[in-house]
Amino acid sequence: MDKIKLKLDKIKEFLGKYSRKTKILAGVVTVAIIAAAVIIALVLNHKDYTTLFTGVTEEEATKIIGKLQESGVDFQYKENGDILIDKDVADKTRAELVYEGYPKSGFTYDVFTENSGGMTTDSEKEMYKLYDLQDRIGATIRFFDGVKDAKVTIALKEEQKYVLEDKEDEAGTPSASVVVTMENGDSPSEKQASAIQRLVAKSVPDMEMENVAVFDGNGIEVSVDKNGSGASGSNATEEIAQLIETQISKKVVNVLGPFYGADNIRVSARGKVNMEKVIRESTTYTTPEKIDEKDKTGIVSSESTTKDSVNGGGTGSGVAGTESNADTPQYNAGTDGGSSGSASESATRDYLVNQVKEQGELDTGVLEDLTVSVAINGKNAGNISMNELRDLVGNATGIAAADRLEKITIVNAPFYEDKEDEDTKEVSNILKNIKDNLPVIAVAAAIAAVVITLAVILIRRRRKRRLEEEEELEDLLIPDVTEEIRKPEILNLKNERSRELRENVRDFADENPEISAQMIRNWLNGGEQDGRKADE
Fold first, then answer.
1. Helix 419-436 and helix 438-511: axis angle, to 10°?
2. Is-contact 217 179, C-beta < 8 A?
3. Which position among 159, 174, 232, 412 has the lowest Cβ density within 10 Å, counted as fewest Cβ atoms?
4. CA–CA separation, 264 vs 412, rounded Å?
């Protein structure tokens, strides 16, 4: 307690040195600083939450919340399945989640429960909701990688207006179309088209993915059906080709970057990809080890040998052709006895050879052709020759030496620079930074205004006090100055009187020369001024 009293006494003693106005001013400054700090804290910590998804199941909500936590996004979850996040990152976060396949349940917007105003009709409210929905879906799609612009058009089904209404007269299911313009002028990938269809389908009740048509900037449909196959088989080919072209361009930049700088190099690669599936079967035959070069044998697989031999001295007798001599078609003409013989030999051999059968399938996405164009800023041209540059690019891209002259084009020339565009970009960046930091700037401006106001008040008070001190000093110095001013007047009066006396003496001397001479002699002899002799 004693320490507290001592501190309070010191504070009172410290404050006692200042006037009441100074204390009030210090209190106002302290309150203003505290209020500004509170305002800054509220502005920085305040977040305007908006609906991300509505009506999401608990299982899917758990997955979505896990994704939000991984991304470091603040969120709010309600029991009815609504997920809310910060409005500033809502569109970007929604685009990322939709690209990954969320949500599979619920809706992406809660626009169907909002009201436009008390004076608008129901049809106008529905129309405003539809416009708002289309704009927000388009804004979400523009956050997809490589998307420049997206226009969404939704056709909702009409509600049943009458109780007794034929089913034939009922309107069909809702449908939508999306036109997506890519930054590079190509078509969106199959995965992007599927994500766009899912986004639109989950944004509108009773809408199926197959009822959402996606078109590129050239008017070509790139929609994906339920089976995941695109509307055109060329989409996968273009996607793989773009991936290969991007990788090849990066390799060229990595090779030439150390010489010219990455900002001074522009690379464009164009590849042709074969997406056909090819099944190839090949059989290879080889002979076993040979005894010598003339050896044609191999491993015997099967062998068949037949050998017949007949020797006999008798001859057939009897009537030719009879039953007893049926096997004797004819007889020899000679009657002399003698020897006879018959021989027959047959051999069949099958030799085995080494046989290798190979069957394989060639994967799709084989790069068949590639051309590369390189533009180099001529301001930074080095001592590397054109042939050396072509060899560097050819080795980096894998183009054969015989084809490099035809498939590699290199141009070395100064790049065009637009100063107005650079100035415009700088101004836009400055304005963007000001807009992003507007709350902080406003609070800082308020604090600066308070500080400037206090500084002006203090300066005025100091000036006023200085003027008062100067006035007091002048009051002290005024009498002396008056005397100094009066001294010249007295001197002037004395001078005038002496001048009059001199003139009178001169006139008296002119009128009475003898008396004047006598008086002068007396003065010289030590007499008084009236002419009498001084007493000795």
1. 100
2. yes
3. 159
4. 10
Specify which residues 375 forms β-bridges with: 266, 411
pLDDT tens track for 128-151: 778 778 888 888 888 888 888 888
pLDDT of residue 75: 83
Q: Which residue has the higher pLDDT, 171 or 238?
A: 238
Beta bridge partners of 155: 175
Q: CA 226 to CA 197: how far, in whole Å?
A: 11
Between strands 278-286 and 354-362, the pairing is: antiparallel
Among 409, 416, 412, 411, smallest CA distance to 378 is for 412
- The C-alpha atoms of residue 467 and residue 458 are separated, in whole angstroms, by 14
Question: Which ranges constitute the DSSP H helices of 204-310?
Answer: 234-260
Strands 265-274 and 278-286: unpaired
Alpha-helical runs (H) found in 418-512: 419-436, 438-511
Q: How many residues does the chain have?
A: 536
Instruction: Find the helix packing angle between 90-99 and 122-141, rounded to 10°.
Output: 70
Quick check: 493 and 485 in contact, CB under 8 A? Answer: no
Give the Cβ contact number of residue 143 at 10 Å.
16
Could you give the CA distance from residue 487 to residue 459 in angstroms, rounded to a whole number?
41
Q: How far is CA 366 from CA 278, 282, 359, in A?
A: 11, 21, 19
Query: How far is the C-alpha of 75 from the C-alpha of 86, rounded, in Å?
Result: 7
Helix (H, G, I), strand (E, B) or coil at 86: strand
